[in-house]
Amino acid sequence: MKISLNWLKDYIDLDDIHANEIAERLTNSGLEVEDVECQGKQFENFVVGLVKEKKKHPNADKLSVCLVSTGDEEYNVVCGAPNIEAGQKIVFAKIGAVVPDGQFKIEKTKIRGEVSFGMICSAKELGLNDDHSGILVLDSDLKIGSPLAEALGLNDVIFEIGVTPNRPDALNHIGVARDLAAIFNRQLKIPTIEIKESLEKTEDAASIEILNTIDCPRYTAKVVKNITIKESPTWLKKKLTNIGLRPINNVVDVTNFVLHEIGQPLHAFDLDKLSGKKIVVKNALEGEVFISLDSKERKLKSNNLMICDAVRSIAIAGVMGGENSEVTIETKNVLIESAYFNPSSIRKTSKSLQLSTDASYRFERGTDPNITLYAANRAAQLISELGGGEILSGALDVYSEEISKKEIELRFSRITKVLGFSISKEDVKQNLNNLGLTIVQETEDAIKVVVPTFRPDIEREIDLIEEVARIYGYDKIPVVERIAVTLDQKEDVSDYKDILRNSAISLGFNEIITNSLQPIEVASIVGNPVEVLNPDSMDMANLRTSLLQGGLISIAKNINVGESNLKVFEIGNIFIKISSAEIKSFNDFAELEKISFIITGKETETTWFQKERDVDLFDLKGIVNSFLNKICLDNVLEDSYYLDENLVFEYNFTKSYKNKVIGSGGSIKKELLKKFDIEQEVYWFEFDINLLKNIPAKQKSFVELLKYPKVFRDCAFILGKQISCKEVIDAIYKGSSKLLKNVKLFDIFESESFGIDKKSMAFSLEYFDELRTLKDEEVENQFSKMTEFVQKEFNAEFRGI
């Protein structure tokens, strides 16, 4: 595979690194550079010349004698090209130059009696393309006498890289640039998509139907109309020719460009040639004959995946298009195909048809299923820019079953064991991040890494270790004279529950363990209990639906023996019915792991310097927040307050992540406490451990102290009891500008004067700007607009403060 250094520089800064060093570091990292071609060398003694005069050769009808100027000198040159004319700027090969096509050296020679001191070259003779119909005429603004490599940008360095089958992500320029970004610790620059779409919708212009979702899980398409098919601009042709591709036209060249830029094969169909303006992905008929773009008849098998319109086949999926839908000079409207195909399906088709293309080569090894839309938009953007087309709004995107990213745990101790030496944690994380692998969770002993779908080769922990080693540098691995190996050793697995347990203990809590089997009247207090077959007694006939009931039993026993000030936690499993129907198998109920906190009694005892105080709901909230802070989830989860309707809580609040409830709790209703003979207030909260574990921990970062004063405002609203605190806070932010930085609830109040279904919520608002001092007028204006917005949003009444 050919990779252009100049092209790579579009995505990463490499100006200060020599090509030889790049080749060496790539090879050492696993992308073997088999050859390095410096284009400028093959064009030594080739310059930009000016044809000052053209005369007919006195002894040959088809030859001309030209006077060529290089600025400081003039040369007589015999030329047989039919398109040579005076005033043209041409490629002049001086004596001593070696012509790339044919590898012959230019010498002073006599042709039919006329002496020629050089050669005027065609594009084919220069190895730029196959055109040998005449000499290559250059742009008139090029400087006479300038070296050809410099004038035409042919001073590129081309790396011939042997990519192993397990690295499909490296079969493109951005993929190689990503490895270089990791090797040299530099930023990777991915092109941004900026397109202007027309009012016409893509879905109104075409449709997609996938009949074989196994071999084609995803098919994406964009439509661009009113295109002018023409020659591509110089920059695009130069990029393609530098890596050995022949430019065809602006549409086809763009699809080839995107293929070699991001590794996603594309195909452009002439939309007006598609029957029914429809794409159907299905298998071929056994023995079906199809004429591909190379004008050859292909006899198909029933396992060959085809792209069809409403009537006929129009392309061999992932391999090659057909003549019946190709883009020609008359094409006006195109449909851009960007799909993900099952690698094994394309491999079988390519082998059975003995047809290998740039597209099939990549599909066989596995492309990125989650980049199809980006690639289609990128192609649409470039086609519109180069062909003047109109991009229809939206896209057709059929994704039958999303291919998700893998999560893999990587232990630092395991890296040391496998490699035989230690790499710093910071180097490990830096290398993985630079490769596009995201670290979503981190502990002292391990990290959890999300592997993007463009790296299908990374499946296990050992694969991550290999990535760390190759980017760190195999040449940096020290020689270890002795390595101790312990046989039959169990792997050291960090227990997330121990982290939670230690965090709870550090907050002053004691752990309790309660029975998971309960009588029906206790188990049914929360949820629908799961019955046990053949229980030992009726007191153990049901599995618990929450840790609450066992916790209250424990609290009651402690109070009865004089221990009324309690802070306890429990880690255990609960059991939830999936449906109200009778349980017939293990699939009819779910087992969830929870951690619960209970506080009751006095927060402070009476002493000479303070009065006693009972614990309250805000003590519980503070404990929950402190617990989250210890596991690095502070300010990640969102609060929501509301009145509980299941007669368990007087007041209830939840912690949510991306609108999914992770934990809930509050103040227990007195009616429920009486069932356990508890006469004092009890506050309880419960987290789902599995959900908690999968939340990416917030990374701590330094924030400079604020230089300008903050402005505080308080407000209160009377609104419906069913409206949650989170909804109101979201509305406050929505109705405000970026000057509002923080919103906190500091009071909830109910009164008969408000109405039986009403409540008052009071909030403290914090305004500031990091760059200036705020004016009272602008804060008041923002505050007024916000209160009006909230009142309108919830039909609320503004109380003021």
Description of the molecule:
The protein is of the alpha+beta class and 801 residues long. Helix content is 26%, strand content 29%. It is built from 22 helices and 44 strands. Strands 29-33-34-40-39-38-37 form a 7-stranded mixed sheet, with helices on both faces. A hairpin with a 4-residue loop joins strand 7 and strand 8. It starts with a strand and ends with a strand.
The value of Rg in angstroms is: 36 Å
Query: What structural category arises from helix and sheet content?
Result: alpha+beta
Percent of residues in beta strands: 25-35%
Count of alpha and pi helical runs: 22
Query: Separation of termini?
Result: 70 Å
Main sheet properties? 7 strands, mixed
Low-pLDDT sequence parts: 485-494
State the helical fraction.
25-40%
Shape by Cα distribution? elongated
Name the average pLDDT.
90
Number of strands: 44
Strand order of the biggest β-sheet: 29-33-34-40-39-38-37
List the topology elements:
Layout: E1 2-4, H1 5-8, H2 19-28, E2 32-38, H3 39-42, E3 46-56, E4 64-69, E5 74-79, E6 89-93, E7 98-99, E8 104-105, E9 109-111, E10 114-116, E11 119-120, H4 148-151, E12 157-162, H5 173-183, E13 197-201, H6 202-205, E14 207-210, E15 218-225, H7 234-242, H8 250-262, E16 266-270, E17 278-283, E18 289-291, E19 297-299, E20 305-308, E21 313-316, E22 320-321, E23 334-340, H9 343-353, H10 358-365, H11 372-387, E24 390-393, E25 396-399, E26 406-411, H12 412-419, H13 425-434, E27 438-442, E28 446-451, H14 461-472, H15 496-506, E29 510-511, E30 517-518, H16 520-523, E31 530-531, E32 542-543, H17 548-560, E33 566-577, E34 589-600, E35 602-604, E36 613-614, H18 617-630, E37 638-642, E38 649-657, E39 660-668, H19 670-675, E40 682-688, H20 689-693, E41 711-720, H21 725-734, E42 740-749, E43 758-767, H22 776-794, E44 797-798
Parallel strand pairs: 13-24, 14-17, 29-33
Antiparallel strand pairs: 1-12, 2-12, 3-4, 3-6, 4-5, 6-11, 7-8, 9-10, 15-23, 15-24, 15-25, 16-23, 17-20, 18-19, 20-21, 21-22, 26-28, 27-28, 30-32, 31-32, 33-34, 34-40, 35-36, 37-38, 38-39, 39-40, 41-43, 41-44, 42-43
Helix pairs in contact: 5-13, 7-8, 8-11, 9-10, 13-14, 21-22
